[in-house]
From TrEMBL:
Family: Belongs to the NtaA/SnaA/DszA monooxygenase family.
The organism of origin for this protein: Microterricola gilva
UniProt-listed PANTHER family: ALKANESULFONATE MONOOXYGENASE-RELATED, C2H2 FINGER DOMAIN TRANSCRIPTION FACTOR (EUROFUNG)-RELATED
Keywords for this protein: Flavoprotein, FMN, Monooxygenase, Oxidoreductase
Protein name according to UniProt: FMN-dependent oxidoreductase (Nitrilotriacetate monooxygenase family)
Keyword hit for Flavoprotein: yes
Residues holding FMN: D57, T103, H153, Y157, S228
Pfam families on file: Bac_luciferase (PF00296)
Residues covered by the Luciferase-like domain: 17-380
Record NCBIfam families: FMN_nitrolo
Annotated GO MF terms: monooxygenase activity; oxidoreductase activity, acting on paired donors, with incorporation or reduction of molecular oxygen
Amino acid sequence: MKQLHFGLFENAQANDTGRATWRHPDNERVNYDTLEYWTKIAEVCENGGLDFLFLADAWGWAEVDGVRPDVASIEGLDLPRLDPFIVASAILARTSSLGVVMTGSTLLEQPYAFARRMATLDQLSGGRIGWNIVTTGTADTAVKAFGVPMVAHDERYAMADDFVELVYKLWEGAWEPDALTKDKNGNFADPAKVHAISHDGPYFRSEGYGNSAYSPQGTPVLFQAGASPAGRTFGGRHGECMFVGGGSVEQLAEHSRAIRAAAVDAGRTADSVKVMAEFRCVVGETKEDAQRLYQRVLDSQTPDVTVASYAWFTGLDLSSYDPQTPMTDLHTELSQSQVSRFAGKTVGDVLKDWHEHGAGSKAFVGSPEEIADRIIELAEGADLDGFLLAPVIQPGSTIDFVERVLPILRERGVVGESNGASLRERLVGSDRPTLPDNHPAARYRATVAVA
Ligand SMILES: Cc1cc2nc3c(=O)[nH]c(=O)nc-3n(C[C@H](O)[C@H](O)[C@H](O)COP(=O)(O)O)c2cc1C
C-alpha cells in the first residue's frame, strides 16, 4: 500500500466553513486572531509529523449578502477572517519542516503581485510553500466586494489557465535558478540569466522583469480541488495535489479515477497527481464515547446556521423550497459540486445532511483503531495518496489525531518518515524541489527574451 500523507485543514476565522462551533467550551479556534493560537497549532502539526497546514480562504460575506444575514454575524460565519498569507508567514517563522499551503484566487488576485508574494514566502521558508488554486466559489459576493465584473463558472477556469501561464513565466522563466550570485567581488546577479517575460493573454497582461528571483521550489506546490468537468480538466493539467471532499469509497474512487484520467489526458502520468481526501474525525475511548462527544458539537448547530451555510456555497436558500423538491431542479453558478453531489436527493434530505456534516464529509466517529481502519479502507479502496484533516474542535481534534490515530497508522506501515527539505520533495516524492519537466510550467524555463 502507498505511504499516506496528511495535512491539516485550517481557516483563519473562528468557525469552520459554514459551521458554528465557536461557542464550544473546548474550541480555541475563537482565538484565530492571535499569534498564540497559530503558534500552538503550527507546533502540534510539526511535532505530530503532519506534512502541511492548509489555509483555506474566501472573499466577501456571502451569507450577509444573501440568505439570513442575521445568522452570519450572530454566529461569526465565515467573517471576519485574517489574510492567510500573513498568517502563513507567522507559522513558517515558528516551524522548520512543516509545509504551508495558501489559497489564492485566480479571479481576484493580481498575478504579478501574487507571484512575488508566493516567491517571498517560498524564499523565506526554504521551499515549504504550496498554492491552492481556486477560482472562488463565492464569486458573486466577492466580485461585488472587489468591484469587478462577474465571470461565469466555467469561464473562471479559462481565466485561471491564463493566470497560471503568467505566474509560471514569472516563477520559472524570469530568473534562472542560479542567476543570483551575490559575489561581492563580482556581480550580484548574472545579467545573462535574468530575462524579461511577455504575456498577452485573454485576461492578463505583463511585460518586463520579474520582481523576485527564483525561489527554492520555483513554482510552489500546486494544489487544486476543482470537481466540475472544467475544474477537473484544469486540475489534470496543472495540479500536483488534488483535494477531494469526503464521501463513500465508491464516490472517492470515482473522483480519484477521474482526476488521474484528466492528468493522463493532459500528457502527464496518473500518479503525477496526489489525491487527498478531506475528512473529519472524533476520537473517543470507544465508539459510544466518541459519539457522545460529537453529539455535543451537532447540538450547537441550529437550523438557521444550516440554511445560511448552504447558501454560502451555492447562493441557494433551501428554506424557500418545498422539502420534497428534487435537488436536480436547482442550479447555481457558484459551487456546482455542492448541488450535484446531492443528485437523487431532495431539498429536505440535504438540509438534514448539511446539518450533520456541513460542507464536509461524514465524520469518522470512533476509537483510534476504528478511525485508523477507516482511513486505510478508504485509501486502499479509492486509490488515495493522503488525507486532509478538517478539525471539529481546535486544537483538540488535531492533537487527538496526531497522538492517538497517527501512531497506529505508522505501526501499520502506511505512514512513513517524511523526508525532503522542500514541500514538493516531502509530499510529491520528487527527488528535487522544482517541478518535473513534463509539467506545463516547465516549458517557460529560461526560454524568454534574454536581457
Ligand atoms: C478540501 C477542499 C478545500 C477547498 N478550499 C477552498 C478554498 O479555500 N477557497 C475556495 O474558494 N474554494 C475552496 N474549495 C472549493 C474548490 O476550489 C472548488 O471550487 C470546489 O471543489 C468545486 O469545484 P468546481 O469549482 O470545479 O465546481 C475547496 C474544496 C475542497 C474539496
